[in-house]
Amino acid sequence: MSSEYPIAVFDSGYGGLTVLQSIVKKLPEYDFIYLGDNARAPYGNRSFQTVYQYTRECVQWFFSKGCPLVILACNTASAKALRTIQQHDLIDSGTPNRVLGVIRPTTEITGRFTKTGHVGILATQGTVNSNSYPIEIQKFFPELKVYQQACPMWVPLIENNEHQGSGADFFIKKYADALLGQSALIDTILLGCTHYPLLLNKLAACLPGTVSLIAQGDIVAESLAAYLARHKEIEVRCSKKAKVSFYTTDSAEDFDRHAGIFYGSEIHSEEVFL
Ligand code: DGL
Predict the structure, then answer these.
(1) What's the pLDDT score for residue 56?
(2) Cβ within 8 Å of residue 173, ≥6 positions away
(3) Strand order in the sheet with 145-150
(4) Whole-structure pTM value
(5) What pLDDT shows up at residue 4?
(6) What are phi and psi of 197, to 5 degrees?
(7) What is the C-alpha to C-alpha distance for residues 215 and 125, in angstroms, rounded to an integer?
(8) Is the Cβ atom of 126 under 6 angstroms away from ligand 1?
């Protein structure tokens, strides 16, 4: 069978581009297609039903383009929609296509990073409320203590390109302090939102030197490479012409103007109507 279809990478907006960047670096020979649902972002404060509905529509759009594999490069969508999509939609439709998230690959190696056994999670309100991180980490590392802090102002600051300004400092410190205030033993903080790597420098400046910050991009890229090696039936359906294309549900002009800071190079996108 000839390989003709790109691997799909999805986020509510720009954040998934931080993951796509790592994936393309790890797997440069594959084709990728990125969709940001910018018209409906942020997802972080929305209900389960809404995030599920929006995510499902985006997954269906990818499937209509022939993508055999969709990566939800959005923790909120992974926390609120992935399970239902995997356990109901994919099974009910009988499709051979697959959908993966970013929480599982992160949680299955969390124990490698901590010496104290106390791990903090910074994420959207939706991801925190879902308890996905504590539940998943307990499955792999029952001895770890997990603390969570929702950071509802961070995605809006980043989406509006205000995160480098001094106005952002107050909210960065506020949530970092609130997390560290839960235990003096936290030595590892997972950035449980794909937007947050853009805050790495400012965030590191608020933390004691003993605390490490872990972003997900490289973790997800490694995990995808391993998945493709294990699942040849999916891998043979993925095209390999080293082509990356970008789509947004909002203005392509706006997307192209902002996306570069997330992806690290210039982007030319197209607008789609779902
Ligand atoms: N980037 C998404 C995540 O990883 C969240 C952004 C949003 O709130 O839409 O959770």
Answers:
(1) 98
(2) 206
(3) 145-150, 118-123, 188-191, 212-214
(4) 0.96
(5) 66
(6) -55, -25
(7) 18
(8) no
81 and 157 both lie in a single domain? no
CATH number for the domain including 37?
A: 3.40.50.1860
User: If you search the block for the tokens 């929609």, which residue do you land on?
Assistant: 81
Q: Could you list the residue range(s) of the whole structural domain that residue 15 is in?
A: 7-102+218-271
Identify the pLDDT of residue 229: 98
For residue 44, the ligand 1 atom closest to its alpha carbon is 8
What total of structural domains would you count in the chain?
A: 2
Is the beta carbon of 133 within 6 A of some atom in ligand 1?
no
* 116 assigned to some structural domain: yes
Question: Which regions in the chain score pLDDT beneath 70?
Answer: 1-4
Q: pLDDT at position 1, please?
A: 45
CA distance readout (Å), 227 to 126, 232, 233: 27, 9, 11
- Residue 194, ligand 1, Cβ within 6 A: yes
* Residue 271 CA to ligand 1 centre (angstroms): 20
157, 200, 248, 269 from 252: Cα distances, Å: 20, 27, 6, 5
pLDDT given at position 128: 97
Instruction: Tell me which of 215, 235, 252 is where a domain ends.
Output: 215
**Ligand 1 atom closest to residue 123's alpha carbon, by position in its atom list:** 10
Q: Catalytic site residue 193?
A: yes
Q: Does any ligand 1 atom lie closer than 6 A to the CB of residue 130?
A: no
pLDDT attached to residue 161 = 87
Which of 215, 237, 255 is the endpoint of a domain? 215
151 is an active site residue: no
Query: How many angstroms does the Cα of residue 232 sit away from the middle of ligand 1?
Result: 30
Does 61 lie in the same domain as 118? no
